[in-house]
Specification:
heterodimer, A: 112 residues, two-stranded antiparallel ribbon, 4 helices, B: 137 residues, mainly alpha, 6 helices, globular
Chain lengths: 112, 137
């Protein structure tokens, strides 16, 4: 089992999660983060830290596509363990619906 | 033996140290786990205990004190098998119940069980075999 990052991370990318993760399993895209399911130990520390409430356990129904997306991009995006500032407009995008279709970028982020 | 009234009612660095010390004292006396751990840590246990204080501090107090890759560490252990995780959890649950009140020990135990499950998935899960692993195998 693993935790997964979902829609509301996109363009919010607050990154509070990366500081508390004991196993450094976050990977950074251009405008969101993902969790590497092979490294996550399911400790759950990140879930309440996310200001956007975008992190869920994969045991929650309906997250199959996000589990796949997390695994797929964790393999190609750089590891991120040190928090940087969120985008200036993060707050404006917090809670916007269906960000995946509208805003998701497959490009890698800068990483540590 | 601690009486119920002296049990710790919150998580602290001090409580974590007591838990880790008590737990690994049991591990070192356990016929199943001792050989595995003594092989992995043949000398000074200080560094391992410090790492475990930091790990549980990160998990229970979100202190970010531990940074590591426990999946890789466990993969390197020869003869690791699901029954050892069961034994580990039994001793961990015993120790946490002795030290903490019901609510706090439950918090530790829920986390420990999830982490143990997730490490086992990483180590033993194969798409073509049943999960959880059969007790006899």
């Amino acid at each position: 089992m693993t935790f997964v990052v979902t829609d509301n991370c996109i363009r919010c990318k607050y990154m509070d999660c990366v500081e508390v993760c004991p196993v450094d399993c976050f990977y950074e895209g251009d405008n969101m983060l993902v969790i590497n399911p092979d490294e996550c130990i399911d400790c759950g520390v990140c879930e309440p830290e996310c200001p956007a409430e975008a992190i869920f356990p994969d045991t929650q129904p309906g997250l199959e596509d996000w589990v796949k997306l997390n695994g797929q991009y964790a393999a190609v995006w750089p590891n991120i363990t040190i928090k940087r500032d969120a985008p200036d407009d993060a707050k404006a995008f917090d809670g916007v619906a269906n960000k995946l279709e509208q805003y998701f970028s497959a490009n890698p982020g800068q990483g540590d | 033996m601690m009486s119920a009234t002296t049990k710790l009612d919150h998580v602290s660095e001090h409580g974590i140290k007591l838990l880790v010390d008590g737990f690994y004292a049991k591990v070192r006396r356990d016929p199943e786990l001792a050989p595995i751990f003594l092989r992995a840590i043949p000398g000074d246990w200080g560094p391992h205990l410090n790492k475990m204080y930091a790990f549980w501090s990160s998990v229970m107090l979100t202190s970010g004190r531990y940074k590591g890759n426990p999946v890789v560490k466990h993969m390197a252990i020869p003869n690791i098998k699901p029954a050892l995780f069961e034994r580990w959890l039994a001793l961990f649950n015993e120790t946490s119940t002795e030290l903490f009140d019901d609510a706090v020990s439950a918090e530790f135990q829920v986390r420990a069980a999830r982490i143990a499950e997730s490490l086992q998935l990483a180590l033993f899960y194969r798409p073509d075999r049943p999960w959880p692993p059969q007790a006899a195998t």
